[in-house]
Design brief:
With 578 residues, the protein is an alpha/beta fold. It has 2 domains: 29-403, 3-Layer(aba) Sandwich (Alkaline Phosphatase, subunit A), CATH 3.40.720; 475-576, Immunoglobulin-like (Sandwich), CATH 2.60.40. Strands 5-4-7-1-9-12-2-13 form an 8-stranded mixed β-sheet. A 5-stranded antiparallel β-sheet has the order 19-25-24-21-22, with no helix packed on it. The chain starts with a helix and ends in an 8-residue tail after the last strand. 46% of the residues are buried.
């Protein structure tokens, strides 16, 4: 064969392949988020009683990533990283109190990128952290203009139901109960799955990016009674990862991450097994809602051309490391379900995914953005930090030079996941090392053993060298504390209980006011004068009471501090002319 003929054939083949790619319809994307779901999923084996037949059938039809981790162990930084493709250590968004659009005003979210490239982007339920970001969507349910992603949901009239509130430090939604209601009467995720199912049952003029945010098993664990009935309380098993002395070999920073008041409070009231029952019931409810969505896809016109992705924003502790909730660097909190199913003929993966495939390479949800855009044949988004997962979707055991980083709360705190090893680094220099092949629950910290010194150095070298500074939320974006007029209610004594937090006092009167802390005995303690129009940050604690007086120390009103940073606005009076 002459060189000229070879070149001609090669050009012809290239032309044909390009033409075929252009004629291949762009795939739809079904993007399912399940909130606060750890590895208590049947196909991941995290708890022997977990019942997730619908998530399991999705895994059996696509690829299950058994070593997937979240970008951060909290909703806001994890979801922001997933939806922007920008890592927390690049964006500076590390915790739930910060605001995405204050730090990333121009970031193009995943739905907006698809919409700007010819897709119809729509969603329902919680995808971001308690807001919708209306500008990023073509349509949303509830309507995007509300910026409230939650449809009506049935909650008990009198709360708490099972877990008494331990004090102002406790998140008010930490509670569980079986509700005498049908799924439809409960609403919430049932309404989300209904709306998503309706979209999947339609033919669309454009390919779609459709996001489905299932809120359970996020607290509160209130779901219809039939889901509780599936887990009789006398049969509940404790978490397999629980070990009573698990904290003994941790450095000080690790020990401070472990025990929290929630777990001690739950055990004090004999609610540990009931809490586990509530979590398992909420997972089963979430799985049923996922099943409704998958059934709508399978029975509709879009089944053969829709990529399905299912993920959770982070895991959850139910007593492991003496901890309840999230916010930790350990595997129980960073490891999450991730399932991707790609149909044959998809532009970026012509062979599709092999049913029932599993991949144990360390991956991060930060990779979802570049993976989905490349599967759809869209241009690369240059701001993406994660590697595309397409090489692993093609060959699960392919060479994979990447590790997965989970960023914890503040710059310099992170967990690093390799295929076998996990390395945790705290900003004070403390560290932990685990062999997850031999120690999947991370019971034995190997970091201080001399034989692992080289491994530690190697893993640390794979982590980021620099971290964007932490920038707190602006005062304007903080929640506002209720103002209690002294004419209606005198200031009570403080009952401080919880970790320190910052409150910003703002004086909206036309004259100075005095600020007093009311101590535990009800005695006012002066904290200075706040001039008209001034603001003053003040460290305080949940349950503290702060009284405001006029210049003559006549009481005007007071604030009772809640469980998070807030702004305390002293309102003007009618005489102020405002």
């Amino acid at each position: 064969m002459t060189q000229r003929l070879f070149t001609a054939i090669a050009c012809a083949l290239t032309f044909c392949l390009t033409l075929c790619a252009e004629e291949t319809p762009r795939p739809n994307i079904l993007f399912i988020s399940v909130d606060d779901l750890n590895d208590w999923v049947g196909c991941l084996g995290g708890h022997p009683q977990a019942s997730t037949p619908n998530i399991d059938r999705l895994a059996s039809s696509g690829m299950l990533f058994t070593n997937a981790h979240c970008p951060a162990p909290a909703c806001n930084p994890s979801r922001t990283a997933i939806m922007t493709g920008i890592s927390p250590h690049k964006s500076g968004l590390y915790d739930n109190r910060q605001k995405m659009r204050e730090l990333l005003p121009d970031a193009e979210l995943l739905p907006a990128y698809f919409s700007n490239n010819g897709y119809w982007s729509a969603g329902s339920g919680k995808i971001l952290h308690y807001f919708i970001d209306a500008r990023s969507w073509d349509e949303y349910f509830p309507p995007k203009e509300t910026e409230d992603p939650f449809p009506r949901t049935l909650y008990p009239e009198n709360r708490p139901v099972n877990l008494p509130r331990g004090g102002p430090w406790q998140y008010i939604e930490t509670d569980w109960a079986a509700l005498d209601a049908t799924d439809e009467e409960f609403g919430g995720d049932w309404l989300v799955s209904k709306w998503i199912g309706e979209q999947l049952s339609k033919q669309h003029e454009k390919p779609f990016f459709l996001a489905c945010g299932i809120y359970r098993p996020h607290e509160p664990w209130f779901v219809p009674k039939k889901y509780f009935d599936a887990f009789p309380i006398d049969e509940i098993e404790l978490p397999p990862g629980y070990k009573e002395d698990d904290l003994d070999d941790l450095p000080p920073a690790g020990q401070s991450q472990g025990p929290n008041r929630y777990f001690a409070h739950i055990r004090k009231h004999g609610q540990w097994k009931r809490g586990i029952q509530g979590y398992l019931a909420s997972i089963a409810f979430a799985d049923a809602m996922v099943g409704r969505v998958l059934d709508a896809l399978e029975n509709g016109p879009n089944r053969d051309n829709t990529i399905v992705v299912l993920w959770s924003d982070h895991g959850w502790h139910l007593g492991e490391k003496q901890h309840w909730q999230k916010y930790t660097p350990w595997r129980v909190c960073t490891r999450v379900p991730l399932i991707i199913r790609v149909p044959k003929g998809t532009r970026g993966l012509q062979a599709g995914t092999r049913p029932g495939a599993e991949c144990r390479k360390p991956v991060n949800l930060l990779s979802l953005y570049p993976t989905l855009t490349r599967l759809a044949g869209l241009p690369n988004q240059l701001s993406n930090d994660g590697p595309s997962l397409i090489p692993l979707l093609e060959t699960p055991d392919a060479q994979w030079p990447h590790v997965s980083i989970t960023h914890l709360g503040r710059p310099g705190n992170f967990g690093l996941s390799e295929e076998r090893w996990r390395y945790i680094q705290y900003d004070n220099g403390d560290r932990e090392l685990y062999d997850t092949d031999l120690d999947p629950y991370e019971w034995t910290n190997l970091a201080e053993r001399p034989e692992h010194a080289q491994r530690l150095a190697k893993l640390r070298a794979l982590a980021p060298e620099s971290f964007e500074a932490y920038v707190p939320a602006s005062v304007a974006s903080l929640p506002k504390l209720p103002w209690h007029w002294s004419s209606e209610n005198p200031a009570p004594a403080s009952k401080p209980d919880g970790d320190p937090l910052d409150v910003v006092f703002t004086n909206n009167r036309n004259e100075p006011v005095n600020v007093f802390w009311i101590d535990r005995q009800g005695t006012p303690k002066p904290y200075g004068t706040l001039q008209a129009g001034w603001r003053k940050p003040q460290q305080t604690r949940p349950g503290a009471v702060w009284m405001i007086t006029d210049a003559n120390e006549n009481p005007l009103g007071h604030f009772i501090i809640g469980d998070r940073a807030a702004e305390a606005i002293v309102p003007p009076t009618a005489s102020d002319g405002q």
